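Can't paste images in this forum, so I'm doing it all in text. The chain is below; anyone willing to post the predicted structure tokens underneath?
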Amino acid sequence: RYQNELIPSAANVAVSGRISTANGNGIRNVVVTLFSPNGNVLTARTSSLGYFRFDEIASGETHVISVNAKRYTFDPASKILSVNEELTDVDFVANE
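Text version of the structure:
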């Protein structure tokens, strides 16, 4: 190896978004689950305004994210994410 050789490394990034009703109100306590290709499963709950965030997510990989709420349904209820950089707009809107 040369001393100045760059070694590629996957940086960790944040994945965040908002869960809301059709009229734009945030939904609190929605369970948001992120499935990583290595088998890790992370879970978060939305804030009182419907926001969620996952930190330290490996970039350069494809993840699946899903939402589940007692009083609401979503279509789609999951999405496939190609995480190559920080994602801030992973939003879900509840069906009416």
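The chain has a mean pLDDT of 91. Strands lie at 12-20, 31-35, 41-45, 51-58, 61-68, 78-83, 92-93.
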